[in-house]
Backbone:
């Protein structure tokens, strides 16, 4: 050896390598940075923005963030002070002290104001992802009470039905719902639609999408908001959930039972929001600075969009009485132990956070694509 080192080929990946990036490495870098640009995002929102349809009897409408705040008080439990009708700039955006801040809605503002409503769009993409999530977030000033559906059974045959109002179960100030349109970055086609439903999600992929959704103009999925609760569904239906059933023998020799569901009614004929026209992009943090959208300060508000520490004043006994009323004449033959068991099973589904407000979008699972 002559003590000299041979020159390494272009693109050699040594730790302290000062040579230029080779063709293969350039290809890898291009692949890793294959995110959408601002114009592409706006084009996809215009093409795939969903159409939100409220129930024809909905009384708790959507509204804008600004309208909601102008009908609230921002409570600071630590200092014992409040800001009446706060602006976005009044919301705390740094730090976190559990339960310190919350929003208290004016008594007459539960109905919202649909004329101010818009879809708040977060575009989510990180390095290595082959798709982009277009998240359409919707705010309602108030989440109304739940409605049940009860069937009375004799020998496992339905002989009577009713739909009891379960108020105040399900009620709370502020309500955030979300629809995710997941788009392939290269082909620009929809891979998946994800809908929020009472803290959970339901997903529709590939060929399921045209079978499940009405696609206006061939590309805009219609999504239905359930009456009072605003859970999102792909079609008009009662959308029964949380099925519970109990049965047993009643002397002399009669087999009786009771089953109940929670209703999530959707319908045509109500207010409509075209999200491809009425929207605001609130977050697309992967864009270069010169293309970035203005991010409103409320995005980084991590506290509840409603009160803290409230309690639902309803017992299993009260729910049981509502179920009896729905059963009519059959109630006389239904044992109390069956009714109480059903009522106790229903109660937890609506008293998850009592009447507390929802968590901020930035703290919810769907914000991170889950």
Residues:
């Amino acid at each position: 050896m002559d003590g000299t080192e041979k020159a390494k080929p272009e693109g050699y990946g040594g730790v302290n390598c000062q040579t230029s990036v080779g063709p293969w490495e350039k290809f890898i870098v291009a692949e890793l940075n294959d995110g959408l640009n601002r114009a592409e995002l706006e084009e996809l929102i215009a093409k795939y923005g969903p159409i939100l349809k409220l129930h024809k009897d909905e009384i708790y409408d959507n509204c804008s963030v600004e309208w909601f705040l102008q009908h609230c008080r921002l409570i600071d439990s630590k200092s014992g002070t409040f800001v009446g009708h706060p602006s976005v700039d009044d919301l705390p955006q740094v730090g976190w002290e559990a339960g310190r801040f919350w929003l208290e809605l004016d008594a007459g503002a539960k109905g919202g104001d649909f004329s101010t409503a818009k879809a708040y769009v977060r575009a989510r993409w990180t390095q290595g992802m082959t798709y982009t999530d277009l998240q359409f977030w919707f705010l309602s000033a108030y989440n109304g009470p739940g409605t049940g559906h009860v069937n009375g059974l004799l020998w496992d045959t339905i002989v009577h039905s009713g739909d009891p109002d379960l108020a105040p179960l399900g009620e709370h100030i502020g309500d955030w719902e979300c629809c995710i349109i997941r788009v392939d970055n290269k082909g620009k086609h929809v891979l998946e639609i994800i809908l929020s439903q009472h803290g959970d999600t339901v997903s529709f992929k590939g060929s399921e999408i045209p079978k499940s959704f009405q696609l206006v103009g061939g590309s805009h999925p219609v999504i239905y908001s359930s009456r009072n609760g605003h859970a999102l569904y792909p079609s008009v239906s009662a959308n029964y959930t949380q099925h519970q059933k109990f049965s047993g023998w009643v002397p002399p020799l009669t087999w009786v039972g009771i089953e109940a569901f929670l209703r999530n009614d959707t319908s045509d004929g109500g207010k409509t929001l075209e999200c491809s026209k009425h929207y605001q992009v609130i977050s697309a943090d992967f864009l270069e600075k010169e293309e970035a959208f203005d991010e409103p300060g409320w995005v980084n508000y991590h506290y509840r969009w409603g009160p803290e520490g409230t309690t639902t004043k309803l017992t299993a006994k009260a729910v049981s009485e509502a179920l009896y009323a729905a059963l009519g004449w059959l109630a006389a033959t239904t044992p109390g132990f069956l009714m109480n068991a059903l009522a106790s099973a229903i109660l937890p589904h609506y008293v998850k956070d009592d009447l507390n407000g929802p968590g901020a979008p930035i703290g919810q699972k769907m914000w991170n694509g889950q």
In short: The first helix runs from residue 23 to 32. The helical segments are 23-32, 38-48, 65-69, 208-212, 316-327, 336-350. The chain has a mean pLDDT of 86.
